[in-house]
């Protein structure tokens, strides 16, 4: 997608510098900063500190981390050690382990002196595949939006609601939940997007920044406003992303997604989840019982970063000094609350049967 008229991916390999470049998302939407990752610590810290964030982007970053590992020391012992180091950075998003497993499985059978080049080629391939997967998700999701648009009075937009940021900066490009929105806008279908602020890190501001850069009509709302809008018929469709999807179609996404699904169910609003197939964890069935939920630093809850009136970017505390904060980063939405799953192979019901029908080769 474009930033100030220039096309960017969320990460890219700079051949002139022989290194990975990322958009440091800690400063968005207030400042657009590019960072180069030079060391294995850089890669691990980029994931832990959410300089890169979003399940698909974390996986692609980890693949390039394995490429650097193979360049430094392509031995089995070193690749396994780096696998452990990167896999420990964040526990919930399954794309991280998926990418690391794919890299290790491809590299270990090769001669040691062939691994570095193969690892970099594989990282490039994983990134390119992610772009194509998300493009296809957008094409399938577009059909849902167009079906709603057909029954709208002429000129009235399809009103979408999304939570967190499942946009192009959470993937390599296009995004998951936002890809259908971009496709609809580019096809001339009028849409308006309600963007949840998504506390504690206010990642909805990233979605608003994205949509605004693309010229898509949107409104930034508090996390608690979605149910009210649904009650008053102002939401036609909810689309979110997911960081891990179980075999039976439960979805684990940013904290607060479950509440949106409950409100959608109560108001007969379709609730769809957009996901690339690497986000499916075929080893897990019951998401509530089996998916580990990351508990992040309480400071993300007690403090807020933003632009001050003088234009500087700073952090301010919003709680009493003696008050502690709890910060579960994700929740699980059971499949019974999900209308359908939008994947690169099409749309299916949120069930084991639905996923297995679309992905028999993976299931």
From TrEMBL:
Record key words, sorted: Amino-acid biosynthesis, Isomerase, Methionine biosynthesis
Family matches, as Pfam families: IF-2B
Active site: 243
Site for Transition state stabilizer, residues: 164
Annotated GO MF terms: S-methyl-5-thioribose-1-phosphate isomerase activity
EC number: 5.3.1.23
One of the protein's GO biological processes: L-methionine salvage from methylthioadenosine
Residue sites binding substrate per the record: 53-55, 90, 203, 253-254
Chemical reaction(s) catalysed: 5-deoxy-alpha-D-ribose 1-phosphate = 5-deoxy-D-ribulose 1-phosphate; 5-(methylsulfanyl)-alpha-D-ribose 1-phosphate = 5-(methylsulfanyl)-D-ribulose 1-phosphate
Annotated metabolic or biological route of this protein: Amino-acid biosynthesis; L-methionine biosynthesis via salvage pathway; L-methionine from S-methyl-5-thio-alpha-D-ribose 1-phosphate: step 1/6
Family the UniProt entry places it in: Belongs to the EIF-2B alpha/beta/delta subunits family. MtnA subfamily.
HAMAP family named in the record: Salvage_MtnA (MF_01678)
Cited function: Catalyzes the interconversion of methylthioribose-1-phosphate (MTR-1-P) into methylthioribulose-1-phosphate (MTRu-1-P). Also catalyzes the interconversion of 5-deoxyribose 1-phosphate and 5-deoxyribulose 1-phosphate. Part of a bifunctional DHAP-shunt salvage pathway for SAM by-products.
Record-linked NCBIfam families: eIF-2B_rel, PRK05720.1, salvage_mtnA
Protein name: Methylthioribose-1-phosphate isomerase
Organism whose genome encodes this protein: Epibacterium ulvae
Originating gene: mtnA
